[in-house]
């Protein structure tokens, strides 16, 4: 039996670019799609939120002179592009996928509705949630926390390039040590960078556990679902 039946998987936009930094690296898209489809084939109910940083990031746009609201709206549209790319990759593997949007784009996806999403999950569809929360000033981390709570997920899985949460940034400090488990309060008190404070508080107050793991290692998503001891679990 799977450790988690229903999950919300958060992927960064930057990860889709691979070493290219911007745009798409097709191999990463297919590798992610294969891992996700394997999990769905085992019976996992999967919701996905993807960032848009490989295309456009709202805060970066603001720093370049864009109005913050318009910059964030551009970032929301970037997440729609990434969601379409992942949907296409999954469908090419034979997966059943539905795309939901936080903003109305009728020809691309349905407007997010908890009732419709949960029905689709139970029918075996992988559900991708694009457009962030639909509001400026909120990150896709916040969108992933919100959607995880709304769809009553068992866990929020944050797929990253590192093995979990460390005492320091492992890409900058080789002596950094990984936590296997840690509490929300410890993460906050030690000022560890996991998610932004809004999303983190949403998870803490709604008792939504977060598991941070390396999505770039092939097979890791299945290992998480099969209760292998990888990544870092954050709970109350």
Written account of the structure:
This protein is of the alpha/beta class and 236 residues long. The chain has a single domain, classed as Acetylglutamate kinase-like (Carbamate kinase), CATH 3.40.1160.10. The chain contains nine helices and nine strands. A nine-stranded mixed beta sheet has the order 4-3-5-2-1-6-8-9-7, with helices on both faces. Helix 6 packs parallel to helix 8. The chain is globular. It starts with 5 loop residues before the first strand and ends with a strand.
What characteristics describe this protein?
236 residues; Carbamate kinase; 9 helices
In short:
This protein is α/β, with parallel strands linked by helices and 236 residues long. The chain has a single domain (6-229), classed as Carbamate kinase (3-Layer(aba) Sandwich), CATH 3.40.1160.
């Amino acid at each position: 039996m799977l450790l988690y039946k229903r999950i919300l998987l958060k992927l960064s936009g930057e990860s889709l670019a691979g070493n290219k930094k911007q745009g798409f690296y097709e191999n990463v898209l297919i590798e992610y799609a294969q891992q996700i489809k394997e999990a769905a084939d085992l019976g996992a109910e999967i919701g996905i939120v993807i960032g848009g940083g490989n295309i456009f990031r709202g805060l970066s746009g603001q720093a370049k002179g864009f109005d913050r609201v318009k910059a964030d709206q551009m970032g929301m549209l970037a997440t729609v592009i990434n969601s379409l790319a992942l949907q296409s990759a999954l469908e090419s593997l034979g997966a059943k996928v539905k795309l939901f949007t936080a903003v109305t784009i009728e020809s691309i996806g349905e407007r997010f509705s908890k009732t419709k999403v949960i029905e689709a999950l139970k029918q075996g569809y992988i559900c991708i949630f694009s457009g962030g929360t639909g509001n400026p000033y909120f990150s896709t981390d916040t969108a992933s926390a919100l959607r995880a709570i709304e769809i009553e997920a068992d866990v929020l899985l944050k797929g990253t390039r590192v093995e979990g949460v460390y005492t320091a940034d492992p890409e900058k400090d080789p002596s950094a040590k990984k936590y296997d488990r840690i509490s929300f309060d410890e993460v906050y008190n030690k000022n560890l960078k996991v998610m932004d404070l809004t999303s983190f508080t949403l998870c803490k107050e709604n008792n939504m556990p977060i598991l941070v793991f390396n999505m770039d290692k092939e097979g890791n998503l299945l290992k998480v679902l099969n209760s292998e001891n990888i990544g870092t679990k954050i709970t109350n």
